[in-house]
Structures are given as C-alpha cells and as structure tokens.
Amino acid sequence: MPVTEALIDTENFEIGAFVGVLNIEDFESSLLYGGKLTYHLSESFFFEAGVGFAEGGETSFEKLAGNVEVLTDSERDYSYYNINLGYNVLPGEAFLTENYAFNTNFYLIAGAGATDFAGDTRFTLNAGAGYQVLLTDSVAVQIGVRQHYYRIDVLGAEKTSMNTEVSTGLSVFF
User: Fold this and answer.
1) Outer membrane protein beta-barrel domain: which residues (predicted)?
2) What are 13-34's pLDDT values in tens digits?
3) How far apart are CA 114 and CA 80, in angstroms?
4) Most exposed of 27, 113, 120, 142 (fewest Cβ within 10 Å)?
5) Is the dihedral of CA 24, 56, 130, 89 positive or negative?
6) Rounded distance, CA 172 to CA 17, Å?
7) Among 14, 21, 22, 52, CA closest to 35
8) Residue 43, SS3?
9) DSSP reduced 3-state for 54
C-alpha cells in the first residue's frame, strides 16, 4: 500500500494559536497564550509575527515580607509582540505506522519586538527552536521553546531579564 504524505498547502501563509508556560524572571511562571501569523518565503525560511499574553506572579520578597506589593495588579499584566525570522534546519518525516507518514520541521527562530510589563514597554530580543508536524496539507501542530531577553529595573538595579517560554500550538495554512 503506498504511503501518502501530508504536503504543505500551496499557500504561503499560516495562522495559529498557542498555549504554554512563561517563566517571568523574579515573578514566577504563569499560563501563556497567544497567536502568530507566518509567511513562508521558501521551504527553508519564514517570517513570523507573534503576540503573547501572561500574568506575573509574586516575587520571593513579596511572599516573605507579607503584605508588600512590588507591582500593582495591572502592572503584572505581561504581553509581548515580535517579528522573527525562522529557518527549517531539519525538514523530515515522522512515521506513525508503516502506512502513515507526516512531514515535519525542526526549526530555529530569532527576532525582536517589545514586552509590556511592570508599567513599561521594553525592547526585546528572542531566540528559540521548535518542532512542527503537518497533520494534513493545511493543518500543523508544533511545540517550541524560546528565550525572551530585555532590560528591567523593577527590583532595584537594572539587569537583563531572561524569560523562558515553552508552548504548543495549532496552525492552519491558507
């Protein structure tokens, strides 16, 4: 019996939603959700515009000191938006059984944008990697890990904050 592969639809755009966990340095880990719009330049390169939302928790100081608030509730709202360039490093196939094969991509991605947190908007760089499985010619699932880097001075001295994102999502090619 011949194996039929899922092929990327002839369209170059992809829209998707994701959910995951974001570790906001000094402010706990929290639920992350967002969306992305991707344009595939070729089989290897793609541009991605993304937006994500989370909420910062309490610092260790706030937990130990009791009734102390470093940030107000509205300042704990965390959002980011970015523009990224991605590269499919290892395109391949995943075999579920001998009759089912799915096209896959292991990709690297990096870019720049902004993060709104603690009452301020900060220039942000991000970089990461992901794995995408095309379930059909127009539907894909992916899992990814990214680091978001920006300068912050909420707890005194200015420092570079590194926030780790782990997420999974579903996208549609059109």
Assistant:
1) 15-172
2) 999 999 999 999 989 999 999 9
3) 6
4) 120
5) negative
6) 9
7) 52
8) coil
9) strand
Which amino acid appears at position 109 of this protein? I
Token code pair at residue 138: 């127009």
The number of beta carbons lying within 10 Å of the beta carbon of residue 119 is 12
Structure tokens at 108: 């690297």
Say what percent of the chain tops pLDDT 90: 71
Closest CA to 75 of 94, 86, 85, 62: 62
4-13, 50-59, 133-142, 161-170, range with the lowest pLDDT: 4-13
Phi, psi of 33, deg, nearest 5: -145, 155
CB 133 within 8 A of CB 140: yes
Tokens coding 152: 């912050």
77, containing H or E segment: strand 77-97
pLDDT at 47: 98
